[in-house]
């Protein structure tokens, strides 16, 4: 059975939360997931009420079990394309065909895309290896765990030096020993004064690599060999949405280049919703879960709205109600 009311593409917090709501609404739901969650490197998840400190994998495992318990289908695989099926009449239902890379085809009345984003981080030796461990990006997710430690904030693209500096001032809330590594970027007199005023150290010399000892970050090595001892370093990556399925369907984008959605996650393409980091770069796990839940309610209401005039017409014609 490959016919569904809703196909959810992406089995993270947003997708599973939506699937849970929809399966409890007695909808036929399939969740398609490639098994590459963005937060896989993180040992713990924070800021999620009732689940603070839980491993991300444990949250997803519990979510999958809950969705399956209500009859949802969980499919491992990668979606290649989503195609809108033409409506044959005003009385016909809207539909989509979802094609997986292994050739599997599913048909569905509605689509929810929760494919997340990918982090574009500085190409510095050690950064990718320590990503999600002691090379961090979100102070609200990990700041408390490294509080009062010697922290660093790594500048990346000089074009985004202002964003990196803002990050440093936020990180300062968790430690009084913070060093900003401009990584070759130029700081104005005003920016330097702000750092001094907040007792944030700063280094102009480009960064050569992160120093790791006994599988722990121990410092930041500069060009020339000097090492600045640090136990954790933060970086603000450039967020890149995994939105090719959405743009392939013709979903409109906003001025920021991201696919535009309304407050329920509805895109410009009828029948297509999106939630979580695929359309909201700031969504933490708890935010993504909430967006998925909201989208699910909107999708179910939309299905009811579509069914109602069809049911009335069938009733008048003496056809079976359904």
From TrEMBL:
InterPro entries: FAD/NAD-bd_sf (IPR036188), FAD/NAD-binding_dom (IPR023753), Ferredoxin-NADP_redctase_2 (IPR050097)
Molecular-function GO term, any one: thioredoxin-disulfide reductase (NADPH) activity
Taxonomy, superkingdom: Bacteria
Record domain FAD/NAD(P)-binding: where: 4-291
The reaction(s) this protein catalyses: [thioredoxin]-dithiol + NADP(+) = [thioredoxin]-disulfide + NADPH + H(+)
Transmembrane segments: none
Keyword Cell inner membrane attached: no
UniProt KW keywords: Flavoprotein, Oxidoreductase
Pfam families found in the cross-reference section: Pyr_redox_2
Residue stretches in coiled coil: none
Protein name: FAD-dependent oxidoreductase
């Amino acid at each position: 059975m490959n016919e569904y009311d809703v196909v959810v593409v992406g089995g993270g917090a947003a997708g599973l939360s939506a699937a849970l709501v929809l399966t409890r609404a007695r909808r036929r739901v399939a969740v398609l997931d490639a098994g590459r969650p963005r937060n896989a490197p993180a040992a713990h998840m924070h800021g999620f009420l009732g689940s603070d400190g839980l491993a991300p994998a444990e949250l997803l495992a519990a979510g999958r079990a809950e969705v399956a318990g209500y009859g949802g289908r969980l499919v491992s695989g990668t979606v290649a394309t989503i195609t809108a099926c033409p409506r044959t009449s005003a009385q016909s239902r809207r539909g989509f065909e979802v094609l997986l890379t292994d050739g599997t085809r599913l048909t569905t009345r509605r689509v929810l895309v929760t494919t997340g984003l990918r982090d574009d981080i500085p190409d510095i030796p050690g950064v990718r290896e320590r990503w999600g461990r002691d090379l961090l990006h979100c102070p609200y997710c990990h700041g408390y765990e490294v509080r009062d430690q010697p922290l660093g904030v790594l500048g990346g693209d000089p074009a985004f030096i202002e964003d990196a500096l803002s990050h440093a001032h936020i990180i300062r809330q968790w430690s009084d020993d913070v060093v900003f590594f401009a990584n070759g970027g130029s700081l104005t007199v005003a920016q330097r004064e702000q750092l001094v005023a907040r007792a944030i150290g700063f280094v102009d010399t480009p960064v050569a690599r992160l120093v790791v000892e006994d599988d722990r970050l121990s410092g930041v090595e500069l060009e020339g060999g000097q090492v600045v001892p640090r136990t954790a370093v933060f970086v603000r990556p450039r967020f890149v949405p995994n939105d090719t399925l959405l743009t392939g369907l013709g979903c409109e984008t906003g001025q920021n280049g991201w696919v535009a959605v309304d407050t329920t996650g509805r895109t410009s393409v009828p029948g297509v919703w999106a939630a979580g980091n695929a359309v909201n770069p700031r969504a933490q796990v708890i935010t993504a879960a909430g967006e998925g839940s909201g989208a699910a309610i909107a999708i179910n209401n939309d299905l009811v709205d579509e069914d109602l005039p069809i049911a009335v017409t069938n009733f008048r014609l003496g056809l079976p109600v359904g």
